[in-house]
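Sample pair:
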Amino acid sequence: MCEAALYVSGRPLDLKTLGSIIGARSEERIRSVAVAVSERYKAGESPVQVLELPDGRWVMQLRAEFARFVKKLSNRPLLTPGPLRTLSFIALRQPVNQSYVVRVRGKLAYGHVKVLKDMDLVAYEVLGRTKRLRTTGTFADYFNLSHDVDVMKKELKQVLALQERAEAAGKPGGKEIEGEKLE
């Protein structure tokens, strides 16, 4: 049941949610079931993996090394390059005023922010004539990042550093997270 829940949800699940699905209350019991599922996938050398995230949630995902082979089969990308760059700018500098995002990213950023808000990837609070932007839990879940903003920023900086090294070495592409190419 744990495996089915992770597969169907398509997002990380916490121990409480997994426990309600498998009918267990003890965190130790729930974790042992999740670990057993994870080990089964490791032993079978499956292209799918079950991982415990740093915040204690569990996720089922495609192993990164298989993403390039099946990428063409996935639906269109979540975001086009413009909104994706605006999203990464917001994520690295959050909380950040929308006026600053527009000053740096250009007037198209207004539309990008609207798209990102509609997709529940960013949220904002109104401060006078501007909005203070931040990423949401949906953003963290989609990109398998921590919900803790400081940890998330470190994770993003590591991904960007890997991409820069790959580009400097002349390798095309860059880093992929969950099938999304970061550019």
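Residues 173-183 have pLDDT under 50 and may be disordered.
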